[in-house]
Amino acid sequence: MVTDSDHLRNQRIVFYSEDIERIDAILCEFLKLSGSKCNLLIDKEGHMVTSCGDTDSIDEQSVAALVAGSYAATREMAKLLGEDEFSVLFHQGKRDSIQLSMVGDRTILATVFDDQTTVGMVRLYARNACEKMEEIFEEIARKPKRSGALDAEFGSSAKGALDFFFTE
Amino acid sequence: MVQINFSLKEVNCKIVYYGPGLSGKTTNLEVVHQKAPGPSVGDLTSIATEGDRTLFFDFLPLNLGQVAGMKTKFQIYTVPGQVYYNSTRKLVLQGADGVVFVADSKRGKMDENIESLKNLGENLKEHGLDLSNTPIVLQYNKRDLPDVYSIEEMEQALNSWNAPYFEAVARDGHGVFPTLKRLAGLVLETLNENHAPRRSPSVVAPKGSVTTGEGSTAATAVATQPTRALNATATSSTGKSTTRVRTTVSAVRTSTHAPKVRTQTSGTRPTLITSPRRRKRQTGMWMGFIVASTAAATVLLHLAGIIKIWS
Known about the structure:
The complex is a heterodimer.
Chain A: H1 4-11, E1 14-15, H2 17-34, E2 38-43, E3 48-53, H3 60-80, E4 88-91, E5 97-103, E6 107-113, H4 119-142, H5 154-165
Antiparallel strand pairs in A: 2-3, 2-6, 4-5, 5-6
Helix pairs in contact in A: 2-4
Chain B: E1 3-5, E2 10-18, H1 25-35, E3 44-49, E4 54-67, E5 70-78, H2 86-93, E6 98-104, H3 110-126, E7 136-141, H4 151-158, E8 165-167, H5 176-195, H6 213-216, H7 232-236, E9 242-247, H8 276-310
Parallel strand pairs in B: 2-5, 2-6, 3-9, 6-7, 7-8
Antiparallel strand pairs in B: 1-2, 3-4, 4-5
Helix pairs in contact in B: 2-3
C-alpha cells in the first residue's frame, strides 16, 4: 500500500535542465565505455526522460512504454518468487540486444547494443552509471519543490490546443 | 503521473482506458489512431492474444503540440478488460493521470460494468488514488444497439459522483473524440492547478482561460454534436501503422476484492489568470503616482523655503 509520503514523493516528477545535463553526461560516458548503440532513460510510467546515442532508428516512445510494461510485469513475477524485483533484465536478439537496469526506485536504464561489445562490458559499466544516476536522483528528491514550474498561460493555452486538436 | 521535462521542454501525461471486456476500449484507441492528424499520432501498439483480445495493453502516443512553450504529449493505454487479467490492469493503471471508463450500454451488461468500476476503484486505491480525486470521464458505448440501458439507468448505476459522461458508438467513431478531449482537459486543468504559478484570488479569470466552471455542470456534459462516421477509405490512406503482437494466452489471477468506492461531486474551482501585461500596467501606474507625488512635495517645500526667505 502506498503511504502518503510515498505518494507525495512520487508526485514530484519534474526534471530540470541542469539535472538532465548531469544525467546526459553520465549516459554519454557510459555509451563510450560500454560500446553500446544507445541508452534510454525511462520512468516507470513509460515516459522518456532522456537518451544518448543513435536513437534515429528507434520509436523511442513505444520502446519506453514497452520497457516500462515489461519491467512492471517482471517485477510482479519476482514478487511471486519471493524477490522484491529483478534489478537487471536482458533480452538477446540475433543482431541487437537490450539490457534494462533499475535506477533508483522510479527510472529504468535501457541499453541497446550489438555485437560490437559484450553483455559483460555493458553490465559492468551500467552498474557504475546507475550508481552515479541514483545519487543525482536522491539529490533531486531532497530539493525543495519549486512552485510555478509551468508558465502562467499554460491553462488558457491548453484549452486552445485541445480545441484545435480535437476539431472534427 | 505527469512528467514535466524542462530539458526536452515536454509535458507527458498518461491516460488509461478502463472498462469491462469487449466494451470497446481498443476500438476507441483505433479510432483516435485513425482520426487524429497524421504527424501528431504515433504507432498503435497492441499486445493481444490470437483472438485479438488485449492481453497486456494497447498503447498510442499522441502529441497535442506546443502548450505555453511545452510539447504536450499523451500516452494513451487500454487495459485488458477480462476479469482474470487484474494483475496486468493494475500495472497499466500505475501512474495514470486520467481514466476513461468505457461502459457497455447493452442490456444485461450492467453487472460487468459495475464489477469493472469497483475493480477500478480498488486498483486506484492501491496506487494511493481513488475515483473522486482522479480525473475520470465515463463513456456509455454501443448506443446504436437496439436493446440498451437508458442514460438514466447508466447514470444511476455507475455515476454516483457526477463525473462527466458521453454517449458513444466507438465502432463508428461517434463520441470518441469528445470523450478524450474532456479527459485531456481535466488532466491539463489538474496539471495547471498543481504546477502553474499561484494567483491572487482577487483577480478575475479573463475570457478564454481554462475554467472548470463548466465542470461543475459536468454531469450534463453529454456529447451533443454528432461526430462524423469514420471514412474507411480516407483513413486507410494515411499509412499509419499498427503493431499487433499476438500471443497464446496462459495465466493468470482473478480479483475477488469487494472495493469500497468513495463518491464525491466533481466540484471544481475556476483557474484564475492575471495577464502579465495587466500586472505590468498596474505596477507602472503606481510607480508614476509615487514619482509625481514626490516631485510635487519637493516643489512645495522649495516654494515654502523661498517664501520664508523673502519674508
